[in-house]
Amino acid sequence: MGLDVDWAVRWLTLSAQAMAEHREELIELDRPIGDSDHGENMDRGFKAVMLKIAETPPETAGAALKLTAMTLMSKVGGAAGPLYGTAFLRAATALGEAADIDAATLASAFQAARDGIVARGKAESGDKTMVDAWTPAVDAAAAAAGDSDVHKVLAAAAEAAEAGAVSTDPMLARKGRASYLGERSIGHRDPGAVSSALILRAAVGAAE
Ligand code: ADP
Ligand code: MG
Ligand code: MG
Question: Any idea where the DhaL domain is (predicted)?
Answer without folding.
Answer: 6-205
